[in-house]
Amino acid sequence: MKTSSSKSSILNAQQMDQKLRRMAWEIYEQNHKEKEIVIAGIYPRGYILSERLSAFIEEISTIKVNLLKINLDKDEPTQHPVVVSQHASLSKSVVVVVDDVVKSGKTLMYASQYFLNQKIKKLMTAILIDRNYKLYPIKADVVGLSLSTTLKDHVNVVLGKNESVYLD
Questions:
Q1: Out of 17, 83, 85, 142, which residue is the most buried by the measure of CB atoms under 10 Å away?
Q2: Considering the entire predicted model, what is its pTM?
C-alpha cells in the first residue's frame, strides 16, 4: 500500500503492536525458566521498543524485567565508547539487546560487544525489522518482520504519534 509517491507502508501502528507482542512471547518462551531478564534497547528507537517489549513480557509472565539504555555512535561506533545505563549487576543474567532495524549488523554488533565483557548467562537480540544484509557475523534471534529489500531502500520506523514502518 503506497502512502505517497515514494513511500510504501510496511506496518501500521496495530501491526507493529502485534509484532511486538509476538516478539515478547518469543522472548518469554525462550526464557520461561528465568525469574529475571535484562532488556537493553539501543537509543533512541530501540530503547522505545524495549520499553514496550518489557511491558508486554511483564504482562504475560511473572518474569521481572530490568530495562537498560544503550547509547552509541551508530555511524562511528569505534570513535566513542558504548554507554549502558546500569542499575544492577548483569552477572548470570539473560540479556536481550533490542533495536528497530538491522541492515548490516554493525550497530547491533557494537552494542552487543559491551555485554561480552560481562559475566552474563545468555545474550539474545530482538529486532523489529531485519533487512537481511549482514556484513557482520550477528543474527537477530527474535524478529518482528524479515524484509528483503534493495540496498538503496531505506526502512523508517516512526514511533509515537502516527506510528508506522515504511520503505522509501
A1: 142
A2: 0.92
